Amino acid sequence: MARFAYTLLLYALTPLIWLRLLWRARRQPDYLRHVGERYGFYAGSVAGPLIWVHAVSVGETRAAQPLVAALAARWPEHRILLTGMTPTGRAAGHEVFGDRVMQAYLPYDYPGAVDRFFRHFSPAFGVLMETEVWPNLLAAAKRLAIPVVLANARLSERSARGYGRVGTLARPAFAALAGVAAQTAADAERLAALGASRISVCGNLKFDVAPATDKLALGAAWRATLAGRPVWLAASTREGEEEAVLAAHRALAASGALLVLVPRHPQRFAAVGALVEREGLRVVRRSAGLPAADTEVWLGDSMGEMAAYYGLADVTFVGGSLVPLGGQNLIEAAACGCPVLVGPHTFNFRQATDDAIGAGAARRVADAGDLGRTVAHLLAATGERSAMRIAATTFAAAHRGAAERTQAAIEGFVAGAGSAR
Known about the structure:
Strand order of the largest sheet: 3-2-1-4-5-6-7
Shape: globular
CATH class of the largest domain: Alpha Beta
Radius of gyration: 22 Å
Strand content: 5-15%
CATH topology of the largest domain: Rossmann fold
Largest sheet: 7 strands, parallel
Number of domains: 2
Helix content: 40-55%
Structural class: alpha/beta
Number of strands: 14
Distance between the termini: 32 Å
CATH superfamily of the largest domain: 3-Deoxy-D-manno-octulosonic-acid transferase, N-terminal domain
Number of helices: 19
């Protein structure tokens, strides 16, 4: 009955779903492409056995890279289908995998749409990245005897409480999973409490994503144009956070530092650029070229160049953490050997953040004022900064191996479910 009520609500919300698509399409017209796929209608036919991997957007797509490679090596006779929900995630899939995988949108969680998805692709098994748990999708997979595994699974205390409030709907969905490859023991405990079984703790796949050497070289080339000017990066900033970052940057005026500001979502590039201009700071957009000698803010309005920005910076602040949004992934910054600062709100990446701070790779700041003071200190303290760089690369290297463990866990889960079509 809970899933029936959920489905009725989903149908009732269909007009709002369309309004949201149209609203997003104002800034990203690609939201109106492949609309049929969102309802389970796909062109062409699919031949041969297939493994399905779902990565909702950019972060999950990049995290899936080492796992997709491991799955392809273990099951070379299978094609890989990569599904997502956003145009930026789809673009990231093309960038990361090229034509080595098929790509499509996963349909909305309507019963008919997910049935059409499974009939069209008939995957041997599926892998959902992180926390993509959809009741009708998992019920259909269970009915069709298609094992579905939750991989790189994380569940914050806040999210666990949210699922717990709709336990009659969530518990059957989690119980329908063939297995879970959790990031940490704490994640595993929270997932088990919601009904998941057959859980293995495998670590975080993002540690296995090696920074692209060409992007690191690009960052070094950018740095060579700055004549030794100090650079700090505000990466993956979220709405309501850029004002605090700009306030912190004003405190660094005497140092002559360049701020590289990279918003998390591309649809906000223009709005953040306008904000910097209103603040009276000299800004150059990455799309317009390199910063000049008098540029105060370089706006990173590009996609797929995060490793280059980390390679350029002396120190980085990882966003989503000065505002209560739970933070963003700091693992890529650490893998690039960049000292990391985070704000007080990191509950989405609690374990990785706490481990990075414990290893000396990251430090926590309380607010905009503390951010400005800490950046100023680190830009002047070459020795401390160097020690943080070494700690960051050591921390990232010490946590690798999740892809191999996750692939082995998936193999066991699928065999236990009696399917490897």
